[in-house]
Amino acid sequence: MDDWLKDSTEVEASWVTVDLTIFTVRGDQLMVLLIERGVEPFLGRPALPGGYVQKAETLREGALRELWEEAGIDGSRLHLEQLGAYGDPGRDPRGRVVTIAYLALGPELPTPVGGTDAKRAYWAPVSQLINGAQELAFDHTAILADALEEIRGKFEYTAVATAFCGETFTLSELRTVYEVIWGQYLDPSNFRRKVLNTEGFVQPTGERRLPPTGRPAGLYRRGTAWLLSPPLLRGTGHPA
Predict the structure, then answer these.
(1) What is the enclosing helix (H) or strand (E) of 141?
(2) Are strands 29-37 and 15-26 parallel, antiparallel or unpaired?
(3) Using an 8 Å Cβ cutoff, are 82 and 102 in contact?
(4) Whole-angstrom distance, CA of residue 99 vs CA of residue 19
(5) Under 8 Å between Cβ of 16 and 60
(6) pTM of the full predicted structure?
(7) In angstroms, rounded to a whole number, what is the distance separating the alpha carbons of residues 209 and 218?
(8) Distance separating the N- and C-terminal Cα atoms of the chain
(9) Residue 184, C-beta contacts closer than 8 angstroms, at least 6 positions apart
């Protein structure tokens, strides 16, 4: 190590953590996975699941381990990607801690089970957190807001919305996912036309599902395209 660095008063030891923003749709609501902290700092406060990265693991490995230990959820089956790094001084009262935030999406995720330093784990409506009704520990409210905007943008240009659906789905179910994420009503006929005119977005299975009422609906699965051309842009619907 350089002598100037060892003697510098401007540099201090830093720690690396991972935090996970896990989204799913339940009861036509966008939900995020939270834990109730069982240790200080912020004892008893809601927070995103996460923790310190161990010395022998990658960032992704640390994220998957923390998700399993704190909530009992296997993250290997989720769409998981890095959201960004957060390292402002003072974000963690224990010292200089830089966290790598991850974003994950999944359909029909199980009821979480709290473990390690999480007193409990549970699904919470995103709407109650974004409007300031409840403050999360650390800077997790800001991380959640960034993750939500990242999803909303990705819905326009990628097929990531299908990560909220099962292996097969109806176009009505896919439209509901868009409406929940964007907070907009989308005209069913226009949405169907745009989806089917976007090459590689979805593929018909040739099967149909009989709903509780109405006519059988065609089933689709995710297509081969990741980037959508043309994109499905926000702003064309009405507030939900």
Answers:
(1) helix 140-157
(2) antiparallel
(3) yes
(4) 7
(5) no
(6) 0.89
(7) 6
(8) 57
(9) 178, 234, 237, 238, 239, 240
Which amino acid makes up residue 35? I
Helices 140-157/171-182 angle, 10° precision = 140
**What pLDDT is stored for residue 3 in this prediction?**
60
pLDDT in tens, 89-99: 999 999 999 99
- Identify the helix (H) or strand (E) that includes residue 236: none
Q: Angle of helix 188-196 relative to helix 171-182, nearest 10 degrees?
A: 110
Q: How many Cα atoms sit within 13 Å of 214 on the Cβ side?
A: 8
149 token code pair: 């905007």
| 36: its two tokens | 């109730």
pLDDT for the residue numbered 200 = 96
CA 91-153-16 angle, to 5 degrees, is 25
The Cα–Cα gap between 63 and 17 comes to 9
Residue listed under structure tokens 């200089």: 96
Across 41-55, b (16+ Cβ under 10 Å) vs e yields ebeebbbbbbbebee
Could you tell me which of 148, 152, 75 has the C-alpha nearest to residue 106?
75
